Amino acid sequence: MKTVNGKMRELGEKRSVIREIFEYAKVRSAEIGAENVFDFSIGNPSVPAPDCVNEAIERIVRETPSVLLHGYTSAQGDGNVRKTVAEYIRRNFGVPLTADNLYMTCGAAASLTISMHAVASAGEEIITFAPYFTEYKVFAEGAGCTLKVLPSDGKLLPDFSALERAISARTRAVLINSPNNPSGVVYGEDVLRRLAAILEAKQREYGKDIYLIADEPYRELVYDDNMVVPYAMCYYANTLVCYSWSKSLSIPGERIGYIAVNPAMENHQAVYAAVCGAGRSLGYVCAPALLQRVVAACIGMTSDISVYKANRDLFYDALVSYGYEVIHPDGAFYLFVKALEEDASAFCERAKKYELLLVPGDDFGVKGYVRIAYCVAPETIRRALPAFEKLAKEYREGKE
After folding, report:
1. CATH number at 6-49+303-399
2. Which of 51, 68, 224, 325 could be bridged to 338 by S-S, CB 3.0 to 4.6 A?
3. What DSSP assignment string belongs to 245-305?
C-alpha cells in the first residue's frame, strides 16, 4: 500500500553523495578521533565570520524592540534591507536595481528552487554544464522540469557548440555557476558575451523568453588580483541572480540570500511577481528577519578569504608535485582532481584507507574526477599531504 510520495521518500532515504561522506566522517571521527580523519567532503567555511556579523547581531538585538525584531517582514523581505542590497548592486555592478527587483530567501537553495518554479513550467527543460552542483537535478525535477546537462570544454568552460544544438522549443532556462562548484573555474567576460549572444539568437528563433539563472554563492571567493567575476545581468537582459551570504560571510547555517530580477527584462514585473508567487507556493516567505538585518549591516564585507588562497596554493602545488592532475581553481574553495583510476568511486574508497574523504565527480556530471573541499584548517591540509603522497605512490607501484 502506498502511504507516502515515493519520490520524496527516495530523496529522504538516499542523501547526496556529499552528505553521505560528511555523515561517514562524523562516525569515523567518533571511532578514531577527528584529528585522524581528513574530511574534504563538504563546502563548510572554516574561516570565522567577520567581526561585523556578531557585532551587528548584538547591536540589532540590543536596539530593536523584540516584537519588531522577531516579527514578520514583508513576504519578499524587509523593504529597507532590499533597498540596501539593491544600492550595493547598483553601485558595484551598474545595474539599476530597486528594492522591487529583490526577493530575500533562505539561502541559495531556496533562491534556485524559487527561480526555477517561477520561470519554468512542467515539462520544460533547464540546461546546465558539467561539472555542476549535485542538487541542481533535484531542484529542477522538483519544479517538474528536466535538467539537461551539457559537456564543458577542456578548460571546463561551456561547450557553446553543444549549447546551440541543445536549445529547443522546450528550453526555458540556462543555469550557470561561476565561480564553479566543484571546479573553481570562473567564467570570464568572453564567456558571458558568447552565452548571451546564443541565448538572444535562440529567443528570436523560438519566439519565447529563455532565462539565464546565475548561481553566485562564491562570487567574492576569487584569489588572483586581476580576476573579475562578470555580473551576468550586464550582458543578458533575461537574467536572474541567485545569491547567498553563506560563503562570503561564513554563515552557511543561517540560510540567508536573495533573488535579483534584472530590471532590463521586458517583463521584469511579471517575472518578479512569479518569483513572489513561487516563494509563496513553496512556503519560502519572509526569510529570517534578524539575518536580513544583519547582512544589510554587513553589506560588502567578507570573511578572511586569504586563508582559502593560501590553502589552495599549498594543496594544489603539493598534489601536482605528487603526480596528480588538478584543474587550477581561480575561485570557490574546491580542487577538482583527476582520479588515479578510471572509477572515481573506487578511487575514493581506496583513499579511505588513508582516512582521506573525497567526493567522486560522477554526481557532478564528470566521471573520473574527485572534488576536494579545501575550506579546512591549514594544519589539516599539511597533515593530510603525506597520505595523498602515499596514495599516489601506491598507484604508481601498482603499475610497475
Report:
1. 3.90.1150.10
2. 325
3. STTTTT-GGG--EEEEE-TTSTTHHHHHHHHHHHHHHHT--S--HHHHHHHHHTTT----T
